[in-house]
Amino acid sequence: MSKAPLIVFFLAAALTLEAQEKIGETVYLEGEVPITRNGDALNSSAVVIGVPIDNFDLMGTGDDGNAQVKITATRAAASTITVSPDTQFTFELSTLQGRQASSIDLISGSLSLRVSKLSGSQDLDVQTESTVLGVRGTEFNVSMSDAGDVLVSCSEGAVSCRTENGAEYRAVPGTVVENQAGGAFRTIPVSVSNVESFRQTWAEQRREAARANASSLIQMNAERYQQLRASDDTDYMALMRQRSVVSV
């Protein structure tokens, strides 16, 4: 079970506070690529190459879906996002205390990003349920299994992987960072030439483990859903209290 229902609810509510703005556009599409905006799915006939991506959009891909999105907003870090099949994620661009913050929330699946060098007032984070990735300008991939395992690999530059308790691990060329759901983070040496095959093997092993432990995974995801619902409710109330100082 994914975070999608909660994310859609949260975004729909947030959009009543601030006007949407175009932050980028699709530059490649293949197969099923649904986009949800303000709580409503766009008509599939409207999802074509060049379709604008708005702030707070929820984007996904089906089993046969692939996409590439270019972030073009002047306030955001210039970046290109390559979306693998079976992926869901959201965009957010905001300004808080003079800093321009771009955030991508990976709900499930796999994303590859190519990010230009950020200015001193720009931040770019990629978030999963258990990890926040801080980026300064690099090329990297982040993958998330159905069970919540996370793998981060970097082909250029470095990515800071921060845990909920503040610990930091760095993904750099030659080293990937893994977090197994409910377990500790670790770094694994993987040569740059083998990182793609390592990532594919890792994903397949996680799929096999999910199939072998389907009932346990369903129970675990149900518990995660309840925890996320409580957390999202708390975050939404905090946003409402700060609405006068938040701008998009």
Provide structural commentary.
By secondary structure, this protein is an alpha+beta fold. The chain has a single domain, classed as Jelly Rolls. Helix content is 23%, strand content 41%. It contains three helices and 17 strands. The chain has a 17-stranded mixed β-sheet that branches.
Per DSSP, what share of the residues sits in E-state strands of 2 or more residues?
A: 35-45%
CATH topology: Jelly Rolls
What is the count of helical runs? 3
Radius of gyration: 17 Å
Encode the helix/strand succession as letters. HEEEEEEEEEEEEEEEEEHH
CATH class: Mainly Beta
Number of strands: 17
Q: What is the SS-derived class? A: alpha+beta
Shape: globular
How many separate structural domains? 1
CATH architecture: Sandwich
Mean pLDDT: 83
Q: Report the sheet with the most strands, covering strand number, pairing sense and barrel closure.
A: 17 strands, mixed
Contiguous uncertain segments of 5+ residues: 1-19
Task: Give the end-to-end Cα distance, rounded to a whole number of Å.
Answer: 30 Å
Q: Kindly state the percentage of residues in helix.
A: 10-25%
Entry summary:
The protein has 248 residues and is α+β, with helices and mostly antiparallel strands.
List its traits:
3 helices; globular; alpha+beta; disordered N terminus; 17-stranded mixed beta sheet; Jelly Rolls
